[in-house]
Write a structure and sequence with these properties.
With about 200 residues, this protein is α/β, with parallel strands linked by helices. About 30% of the residues are buried. The chain has a 7-stranded mixed sheet with strand order 3-2-1-4-5-7-6. The chain has 5 helices and 7 strands.
């Protein structure tokens, strides 16, 4: 059985009035089936509606009321180009929600190029207005995901790594709730796990 994820999301991430419209885009949904969204990913796996790149979106201008871009920008060749494409397809008054890793292990899909601070993420906003920002997952998530990866570094066989991940995942997952206590600490961002931005396209 798959253990719970080693992190809890900050609910304040979604404390913004950004309703779904008739057309909404989810970038990087992979095999998920996000309700109410056109799901775009690089690969045509089950659940993906359109196979394509966020750096060259196959959609017309000003189409989507909301764009979700979750843990994608670290994987693209040119994040600036990807952001201008998101800005292009976003309808006036629409919202874009970006999530990127800061302290997080290397993960290829199919490549892994970079990490972001909140300041670095804001630089990508371009002509979009920043309406909210914060940390999705905190320092305990960072500690747990790196500990899991560290243990797996010592194990040469994939089945053994899977077993270790499952056992440690179940043993350690209660610690993730420490991030609920750490949300108010100004020092928690020093080793935060994922940060986010809400952006709005002006009329």
């Amino acid at each position: 059985m798959q253990p719970p994820a080693p992190f809890v999301h900050d609910p304040r991430e979604h404390d913004i009035d950004a309703p779904l419209g008739r057309w909404n885009l989810y970038v990087g949904g992979a095999g998920r089936d996000p309700d109410g969204y056109v799901n775009l990913d690089l690969f045509a796996v089950p659940g993906v509606d359109v196979a394509g790149s966020v750096e060259c979106l196959p959609f017309s201008d000003n189409l989507f009321q909301r764009v979700e871009c979750d843990a994608v920008l670290e994987h693209v060749d040119c994040p600036e180009r990807a952001m201008r494409e998101i800005e292009r397809v976003l309808a006036p008054g629409g919202f874009a929600h970006l999530v990127v890793p800061f302290c997080h292990p290397f993960h290829e899909y199919p490549r892994d190029f970079r990490r972001y601070t909140p300041d670095g993420l804001r630089q990508l906003a371009g002509g979009l207005e920043v309406v909210a920002e914060g940390w999705r997952t905190g320092p305990t998530a960072t500690l747990l995901v790196f500990l899991l990866e560290y243990v797996k570094v010592w194990l040469p066989w994939r089945p053994l790594r899977a077993v270790a991940h499952g056992i440690l995942g179940w043993l350690l997952f209660p610690l993730r709730y420490l991030d609920v206590l750490l949300r108010r600490s100004p020092r928690a961002s020093r080793i935060g796990n994922h940060c986010y931005l809400w952006l709005r396209k002006k009329w």
